[in-house]
Design goal:
Blueprint lengths: L1 H13 L2 E2 L6 E4 L2 E3 L4 E10 L5 E7 L5 E7 L14 E5 L2 E7 L8 E12 L7 E6 L2 E2 L4 E2 L2 E4 L2 E4 L1 E3 L1 E5 L8 E4 L1 E5 L3 E10 L3 E10 L4 E7 L9 E7 L4 E7 L9 E12 L6 E7 L9 E4 L7 E2 L2 E3 L1 E6 L17 E2 L10 E8 L3 E8 L5 E10 L2 E8 L10 E8 L4 E8 L2
Parallel strand pairs: 1-14, 2-15, 3-16, 17-28, 18-29
Antiparallel strand pairs: 2-4, 4-9, 5-8, 5-10, 5-13, 6-9, 7-8, 10-16, 11-12, 13-14, 17-19, 19-24, 20-23, 20-25, 20-26, 21-24, 22-23, 25-29, 26-27, 30-31, 31-34, 32-33, 32-35, 35-36
Length: 419
Amino acid sequence: MSTRIILFGLISALLLAAAAGAIDKVSIDSVTAYPGGTAVLPIDFENDQQIDAVEVVLHYDTLYLTVDSFSTEGGRVDYIEPENIIFVDSAQFIDIFVPDFSTYIQPGSGLLGNLFFTVNGSAASQTFEIDSTRWPHPIVVRHTSYSSGGIATTPDFEKGFITILDAPPTNDTVWVDSIGAIAGTEAEIFVYAKNEESLREIDLSLFYTSDNLLFDHVEFDGTRGLSATSIVEANAGLRQIHINLNYGDSSPLLAGSGPLAKIIFDVSAAAPVELAIIDSISYLGVTPMRFHQAAAEGGISFVPYFRKGFIDIKITTDVEDDTQNALPTDFALYQNTPNPFNPTTNISFDLPRSSHVKLDVLNILGQKVLTLVDKTMPAGKHTVTFDTKRDGRELATGVYFYKLETDDYTESRKMLLLK
């Protein structure tokens, strides 16, 4: 096998031809992870002709990332025996060589495999690039390439990133409602929090994605923010909001869960149908979302886990309008939001006509984990909330797929559960 590898590398060095078709491409996904946790990095590839091998050579940061393994399970080449796949991790380089010299890898696109990294505990708030490179071998030049009949071609390459989040010392979480609103009306959206220890102060720094949301004001009646001294700042041009809640050390916010504030937006009368995301941000690049512990709890400050929400903006039609025009014209399955998620995410899809719908969640091996929907549904836009704690057994961190099936349409998308 070593002779075959050397020959392949020599051919690669001598015959660096242009890729046969523009469709040839190797793509590294971009994912998030926590310090001390695992980053699961999908590698996808696309080929427009039959090939007999794929080689991917990557460069990564060994100071903060440690390679655990590579798996083709659930991908296009999972039929190839693991012992035939060459996987080398040396210094800052990874070399993955996946051959099929008998039946050949057929044209198509999809997952090559998943790289598993362990993240260093000191890697918080950093982003690491995973890029293509050349293996610095004194004799054999190795690089990301396809092999077809002994001739190596270089596919297009799209690098990926691993972003390491700030890991809170507890399971403290902030999350935002997901609601619907009509263009030309008012939208009220709650911001919630769970804190496991007493807090003297909270900074809520938020960003909204649509210019059709016009920030009006914040209310605290009936929320856990009512007992705090509050300061509200907003920057309409940047679509940012900062809410500071100061409880003080003498009467801190006790451990618990519930709404902290209610944000009121005016929805523009000219707004189209759209999904306006409410996400976290560092306000004006200075003040991040942050919990400040009471002095009795240690007094440290940290960034809690955050789950974004959205305002699903709809429009109305006059009575004389043909209401059928408001219905979707095609079947569609959309990317889940939020993604990555924990423990809930929303899956939306369009039905141009009444259909029997089956919506399944699958693991990376393509095995069904659970069924979210299995019934006849009317035409229109639909959203299903997937709650890993409510809808089934506890799921491990990793990549999952959700699959929509009707009599006339089948589509799948992937999602990432992070804990």
